[in-house]
Amino acid sequence: MAKVVTTIMLPLLLFLLMFCISLNNGGRVHSLEESMVMLNHAQISRRHRQQQHSIQACILPDSRRKNSAIILEMKEQEECPPPEEEQQKIKIDYWKKRIMLDDLRVRSMQNMFQRIMSSNNQNLLSLEASKSSQIPLNLGQNFNILNYVVTLQLGNQKRTMIVDTGSDISWVQCEPCRSCYNQKESLFNPLTSPSYQSVPCNSKPCQTLHNTNQPIFCNKLNNYNTTCDYVVNYGDGSISMGELGTENVTLGDMSLNNIVFGCGRENKGMFGNSSGVLGLGRGPLSLASQGSDKFGGVFSYCLPFSMNGETSGSLVFGDEPLAFNNLTPIAYTKMVQNPFLPNHYMLNLVGIQVGVLGISIGYGREVVIDSGTVITRLPPSIYNMLKEAFLRQFKGYSRVPGVAILDTCLDLKGTQQVTVPNIRMIYEGEEGNNNNNAVLNVDPSGVLIIVREDGSHDLKFCLPFASLSYDHEVPIIGNLQQRNNRVIYDTKLSRVGFAKERCSFNGMVS
Length: 510
What we know:
Elements: E1 4-6, H1 10-20, H2 32-52, E2 64-66, E3 69-75, H3 94-131, E4 134-139, E5 148-154, E6 157-164, E7 171-173, E8 197-198, H4 204-211, E9 216-220, E10 226-233, E11 239-251, E12 254-268, E13 276-279, H5 287-290, H6 292-295, E14 298-302, E15 313-317, E16 331-334, E17 346-354, E18 357-369, E19 376-378, H7 380-392, E20 399-400, E21 409-410, E22 415-418, E23 423-427, E24 438-442, E25 449-452, E26 459-462, E27 465-467, E28 476-477, E29 485-490, E30 495-500
Parallel strand pairs: 3-4, 6-13, 7-12, 18-28, 19-27
Antiparallel strand pairs: 1-22, 2-3, 3-15, 4-5, 4-15, 5-6, 5-11, 7-13, 8-11, 9-10, 10-11, 11-12, 14-15, 14-29, 16-30, 17-18, 17-23, 20-21, 21-26, 23-24, 25-26, 29-30
Helix pairs in contact: 1-2
């Protein structure tokens, strides 16, 4: 199923995989000639952009409207020009450091899940006893992260923020800042925005935050009023602290008034050089929930893959099929209602297919789908079956030691062409009918990645999935495996949809 044709210089294999691996009914390979043409085009285009763009290129284009939908461009942030000394470098080994940071995020999420479920289990025992527009979306490589960012207007200032369906509170770094990390844009200044208001401590939003188990503090401004101070602690050392405020958020010609967000005064951690986080979780204070009435409770994204900044994806607010460029029909799976983790989007994973090999998961396994996690994490029992099926596609090729959390890596030196096995993640259909399952077709960039150890010239070709420590931990579907798919979150009908799509913001019309 997965045959590899041999003999070519190693650098050419690198470019072959970076630019040319694609799938068509189980696997397709490009010729060396095709690879070199595409590589040359990419290099010329990138040099031209670097010459033409200033730091303003880090701010993505304005939102667009398509009928009732608002579309924001979503990019890998490769449009932002890197420092002069890095412009000629091809970053291969950036994976290792970013994956280690991603692992910290997942560990902190697992710790949080365990604390919440343990606490809720105790509460349940007590109860039982007592009862007897479309916007551009880009990968944030130039913000030193592997997450995706969009630019929106907060009050009268544009902000570029990480898109995170795994958290609720949206926040940006604010002046005056007691402790802030470096960001590409200026700090948000609430004093220069006529629509900004502080959230009082006795207000409904502050109480809502308290009810979601987030710590709050009351900071006395004068003898009569107090502000609602928040703390978002990501558990791995990443943190944002500040005051809750309300502000108008503008997406194209759609205005969301009095949106509650965090004005961060102390922030540190895994945020790269972005201005903050756009929380799109299921909680009541996420932007998805606060703006639900405006865009019908539906938002979606197409996450692009581009190592050279050629493509953009989109973040769409509203249920407007004409805003999508999907190549396959949309198939929906129901959201799982988990009382312990109500603020996360949870689905029932019932199987995985690797090439022609199928992995059945019986009645299924509840998983979190998260745009803020990079690498998909699976329980050891499921991951080991995936790994075995993957390696069977590469018989005859040597395994090499893994890198960080990636333990399934190959030595493909001297290889000219690679057929990448198709990986399909199968979710329970809306009605629980196995004949109506929803399938997430993993893009080739989420099946095989290139990693180089620090200080080494050897390249490793790794399966970008990883195992959790224990079978009882909560699986997470990361953004690397969601690329080049339209992923639709319909909170009103409690479902998530998947369709194959070539992410291209430029292909959309206003």
